[in-house]
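Supplementary notes for students who missed Thursday's class. We covered one full example, reproduced here. Read the sequence, then the structure, then the short commentary at the end.
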Amino acid sequence: GFFRGPAGVALDEQSIYVSDSGNRRVQKFDREGKFILVFGSDDRGDKPEEPAGLAIDADGLVYVADRKGRRILRYDSDGNFIDDIRFENLEEPRGLQIKGDTLIVADEKSGVLFYNIKEKKWTGFPLLRDENDRPVTFNRLAAARSNQDGSILLVEYGSQRVIQAIPRGLKITNLDCRIQRIDARSYPQIGVFMTVKNRLGNAVHGLNRSDFMVFENDSRIGQIKTDNVVPFNNRVNMSIVKENSKIFLNNFNGYIPSVMKGVLDPIRIADRIRVIRAGEQVRSVHEGLQRRELLRSMMEGETIEEPNLGKALFESITMLLPEIGPRNVLLVVSGKYFPGAFNQYTMQRIRQYASANEIMINIISFEGDDDEDKKSRAAEMYKYLARRTGGEYLNAFNESEIHGLYAKMQEKQDERYIVSYSASNENLMQGRYAEVRLEIRYLGTTGIADGGYFVP
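Structure (token representation):
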């Protein structure tokens, strides 16, 4: 619990690891700061000469940069030494980050190095040039962090500065900007919900109002506000679509409470849940968190031989459009193949509608068709829809996977921006269409998105 020159910190879901360079050890604490154990300072394994940066991979292995030892040490979560990683260009490794299967190393003398953990191969950093096309050299690099936009932040200890290295492809291509929704309910106050992505398909983070220009009917708006929806990402918005078919009523209705337990147990008071039944008609039958009422609404209602699942999904997505935060559809089906279930709204149209609005569709299926060919055909159809929208296809009797579904819903973060402004002309006639254009300029790239609204 005491340090002499702490030089690195890494966290997993349960623990905090700190490299204690002066004492040549790594200390482990729980998330409340209570000491658990120390490793690297005894004879159980190889000792770091000067531990610095730390990183933890998906398997829970702890990577320790050994500055003086010119290597990367690996330990398990109990502090048992596993092996070390060496490379001739490792001269003074200091900062570590793991991104997928890649270990990113900031070396004070060698610069940035990449190590593919699975393939066990090293690669160097490409030649970096500044805005004037002059080569950039590093002065005692201390850390390197790859962000969600595809660029890398480099911390120079020697020059006391941070460098943002942007892939050349992102500098010469435009941003992908899309207006998803324009909220004019509080006219003349207008809210524009939009996504901004780079050409790698990654959401662009950190934009502020100076990066946006708003035009309404070709007149620039002077005062705008920009916010992202981060404060709302701790709330899950879920529409549960329940198939009300006769086969479901006769064979699977009684399993609803036990199957839904894993989904409903983790829900919190901030979440928003809605139940939509796809029976003779498509209707929203419950909204709220009352467990008993929610389950009852799923188990009741008129049934039909062949439900209109396409329409139910389309309406459930539409109901989620105004919501802010993670938005998910959960489709609960018998797994029987219905030839006409997607006649009105095709599977392709549903997928495109959900993907365009970044709404994930998860599917729980009882896989209950007696015909093996039809059961397989239905499963493949549902798997396609789930996976193409970023969701999961789950067998209703796979209890462990269903218990993890809520956490996956939380992971689907809402990455939109909300641009708000006051309409340029409050005297526009009711029902007139106002054209809206947003232009974005960020890190040498530009993006344009067009939309509009009818004056209420």
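Commentary. The mean pLDDT is 90. The two ends are 63 Å apart (CA to CA). If anything here is unclear, bring it to office hours.
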